[in-house]
Design a protein that fits this description.
Strand content: 15-25%
Strand order of the largest sheet: 3-2-4-5-1-6-7-8-9
Distance between the termini: 56 Å
Number of helices: 11
Number of domains: 1
Mean pLDDT: 92
CATH topology: Rossmann fold
Helix content: 40-55%
Length: about 300
């Protein structure tokens, strides 16, 4: 039994009377606010309608082929939680340094093209004003970024606990990405390693009572099919990921393969697994130059189908 499994044993059984009282209170709150969502808003209207927002204790996988926008979507959700909901966010970036993430955040919030920010092209007055506004939004946001390349799941648990002591309850734990988390026990085969990492991340979500989002790559098999939309079977160590994840979201943008696609600027977010809710596809707008996703106008799907 691992250290984290021992931690999980600290949870005590609860009497049915207490559980019933908590559940009835939840139902009363939901009935009084029928248009609200049960979880923490992602910032995307239609995605929240399908999922009820980010649920505390859930392990959520966002997956896709390179260039689809996994990191952009995850960062946009982090913005919504930290700035919109004012909930603390712990971001562990094993894939990119913190300065790169800051440029991404500033581009998304300011509406200044990411490439311009990367080159330092902010000489005009309009860009400076937009950047100043984005900085004001971010400076007080309860967002902490760790870009250590050598994190194990044990490190993730320990550092998240320390952050919880500093910030209080966490609204989101975001990890980019699954394939770069170091093994606690080197030498295991990949399936065993992913299974242990995913189980540990699920325990982390329960222990912190916070949603955990982890990003994942998708196998090249998806690109060898006529229909390149990824499936659960395309996940690396798919059985382990599918078993432990509460929600699996796949990102697919047809324009990555076909620049003349009629759905240019549109992303399909396929809810391929949702333990306690429906599966299906949500369409979002994607502004590549700002690394920003957004809601589509109401009725877009019907109009497109016509």
């Amino acid at each position: 039994m691992t250290e984290h499994e021992n931690d999980y044993d600290d949870y005590r059984q609860r009497e049915i009377k207490r559980l019933l009282a908590d559940t009835i209170f939840y139902l009363q709150e939901a009935s009084e606010h029928p248009d609200s969502i049960a979880g923490i808003p992602t910032g995307f209207r239609d995605l929240d309608r399908m999922t009820g927002g980010l649920q505390r204790g859930d392990l959520i996988v966002i997956a896709g082929r390179p260039g689809m926008g996994k990191t952009a979507l995850a960062m946009n959700i982090a913005e919504a939680v930290a700035i919109g909901a004012r909930e603390a966010v712990a971001l562990f970036s094993l894939a990119q340094p913190d300065r790169v993430l800051m440029l991404r955040l500033l581009s998304s919030l300011s509406g200044i093209a990411h490439d311009r920010l990367r080159k330092g092209d902010i000489t005009d007055e309009g860009a400076r004003e937009k950047l100043a506004l984005a900085v004001r939004q971010l400076v007080e946001a309860p967002l902490d970024i760790n870009d250590d390349l050598n994190l194990t799941v044990t490190d993730l648990h320990a550092q998240t606990r320390r952050l919880q002591e500093k910030r209080g309850a966490l609204g989101l734990i975001l990890i980019d990405d699954l394939q770069m988390i170091e093994q606690d026990n080197p030498g295991n085969n990949r399936m065993t390693t992913v299974d242990r990492i995913m189980r540990s991340l699920k325990l982390l979500a329960r222990e912190m009572y916070a949603p955990v989002i982890v990003l994942s790559q998708v196998s090249q098999r998806a690109e060898q099919r006529a229909n390149k939309r990824p499936l659960l079977a395309d996940l690396p160590a798919a059985g382990a990921i599918e078993q432990h994840a509460d929600v699996v979201l796949f990102i697919y943008r047809s324009e990555v393969y076909d620049p003349d696609s009629p759905e240019r600027g549109i992303a399909d977010i396929n809810i391929a697994k949702q333990r306690n809710g429906p599966i299906g596809t949500v369409k979002l707008a994607f502004q590549a130059e700002y690394l920003r996703f957004g809601d589509l106008a109401s009725g877009y799907d019907e109009a497109f189908d016509d």
